[in-house]
Structure to design on (300 residues):
């Protein structure tokens, strides 16, 4: 049951009436080919042999969806040839794929449990250096396991608060910030019962500190993605707007042919955000049958 306060809040912002109905449907199972160990052609052939129907995404050839829950029981999953991951979670690394392919030093700032980290390592073709950092020591174990399973050999794990991270100039920084997680309600409906606006404001304060620090860790000309799995403008456009007020940053337009994206909002509850935040993208669940997400691409 979606809380009335949630409906009231997002009826002001959501693109259309299909938003709330979509949140009450089950999220399709999705996964990504781990190109360190396999190829999408091999995965298609293997799954056809199992009789498991999978659908390849036109906007990302290594991404698939399936209605079959046995995906996680396949040999390919056991061997790390595929990684079960939400489609929208693949987008932050995907939009900077070219930069990752040519990068020598990359930071995944909030890395655990490793969905994006393993994807980044694959895009880097296991070359260069990838620093995978996370504040939570308990989640580091999952990160380490997933990196080993994926065969990621270019990755160093660190366990630090990003706000106090040692100064170093990175070619690419991926900041998938801690958030109120509203966008994963299709996967975890318990979030409906614990949702409240106070969590949004607490996360927003932290995110503003994290995005400024992450930007400071970029070299001149470097690129950063800032992302959350939430709908709240306070955690999205407001955070990007804060960076623009504190630093000389540029927000790049994001294009993903074959995948519907919505512009960032420049106004929310009497708050005005810089016009550049329109270059950020919102992903509404009903548009692509996914979770909810927000991504900004920032250039220094």
């Amino acid at each position: 049951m979606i809380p009335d306060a949630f409906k009231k809040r997002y009826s002001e912002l959501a693109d259309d009436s299909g938003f709330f109905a979509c949140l009450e449907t089950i999220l399709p199972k999705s996964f990504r080919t781990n190109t360190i160990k396999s190829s999408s052609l091999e995965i298609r052939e293997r799954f056809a042999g199992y009789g498991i129907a999978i659908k390849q995404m036109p906007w990302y050839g290594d991404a698939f969806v399936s209605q079959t829950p046995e995906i996680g029981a396949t040999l390919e999953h056991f061997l790390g040839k595929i990684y079960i991951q939400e489609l929208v979670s693949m987008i932050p690394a995907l939009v900077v794929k070219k930069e990752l392919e040519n990068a020598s030093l990359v930071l995944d700032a909030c890395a655990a449990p490793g969905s994006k980290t393993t994807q980044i390592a694959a895009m880097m073709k296991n070359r260069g250096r990838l620093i995978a950092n996370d504040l939570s020591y308990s989640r580091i174990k999952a990160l380490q396991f997933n990196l080993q399973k994926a065969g990621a050999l270019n990755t160093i794990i660190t366990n630090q608060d990003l706000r106090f991270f040692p100064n170093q100039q990175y070619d690419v920084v991926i900041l998938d910030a801690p958030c109120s997680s509203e966008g994963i309600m299709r996967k975890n409906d318990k979030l409906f019962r614990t949702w409240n606006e106070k969590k949004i404001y607490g996360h927003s304060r932290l995110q503003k500190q994290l995005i400024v620090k992450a930007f400071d860790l970029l070299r001149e000309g470097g690129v950063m993605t800032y992302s959350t799995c939430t709908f709240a403008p306070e955690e999205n456009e407001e955070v990007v707007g804060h960076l623009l007020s504190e630093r000389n940053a540029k927000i790049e337009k994001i294009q993903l042919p074959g995948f519907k994206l919505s512009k960032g909002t420049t106004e929310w509850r009497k708050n005005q955000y810089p016009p550049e935040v329109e270059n950020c993208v919102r992903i509404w669940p009903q548009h692509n049958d996914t979770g909810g997400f927000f991504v900004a691409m920032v250039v220094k």
